[in-house]
Amino acid sequence: MAQTVVLKVGMSCQGCVGAVNRVLGKMEGVESFDIDIKEQKVTVKGNVEPEAVFQTVSKTGKKTSYWPVEAETEPKAEAEPKAEAVTETKTEAETKTEAKVDAKADVEPKAAEAETKPSQV
């Protein structure tokens, strides 16, 4: 079963790229792979298991982890409006709570005035 495995690999130089290139080139089932040193991203395509690719690349001694799924499938621009919507909801709830508090504050002084007037008479 052909699939794509994406890893984040700590590579700081062309020697690091060469090490990853060497182990993936020897790995059985790999049809193609792409190594991006700027993004520290390694994409492997072929008849491979994700864990096997992970273990093979880890043998280079480079810090290796699976590429975060959220960043790959959901652009950051789409994630931000969702956070704003949550903030707006909280603000509306806070406004309603403040309105209730203000309404009680208006009632309480009137009651206090009513109590004060009879004692003055």
Descriptors:
4 strands, globular, 4 helices, 60% helix, 121 residues, alpha+beta, 4-stranded antiparallel beta sheet
Please tell me about this protein's structure.
The structure is a single chain. The chain is of the alpha+beta class. It has helices spanning 14-26, 50-58, 69-73, 76-120; strands spanning 3-9, 30-36, 41-46, 64-66. The protein has a four-stranded antiparallel beta sheet with strand order 2-3-1-4, covered by helices on one side. The longest helix has 45 residues, at 76-120. The protein is globular. 13% of the residues are buried. Residues 71-105 have low confidence and may be disordered.
Describe what is shown at a glance.
With 121 residues, the chain is α+β, with helices and mostly antiparallel strands. The chain is built from 4 helices and 4 strands.
Estimated helix fraction:
55-70%
Judged by helices, strands and strand pairing, the structural class is alpha+beta
**Uncertain segments:** 71-105
Number of DSSP strands?
4
Q: How confident is the prediction overall: mean pLDDT?
A: 74
Query: Number of helical segments?
Result: 4
Q: How many strands, which pairing sense, and closed or not: the largest β-sheet?
A: 4 strands, antiparallel
What is the percentage of strand-forming residues?
A: 15-25%
Over the alpha carbons, how many angstroms does the gyration radius reach? 31 Å
The N- to C-terminal Cα distance equals 94 Å
Q: Tell me the strand order in the biggest sheet.
A: 2-3-1-4
Secondary-structure element pattern, one letter each: EHEEHEHH
Principal-axes geometry comes out as globular
Biased composition (Basic and acidic residues): 73-121
Protein name: Heavy metal-associated domain superfamily
Keywords: Metal-binding
GO molecular function: metal ion binding
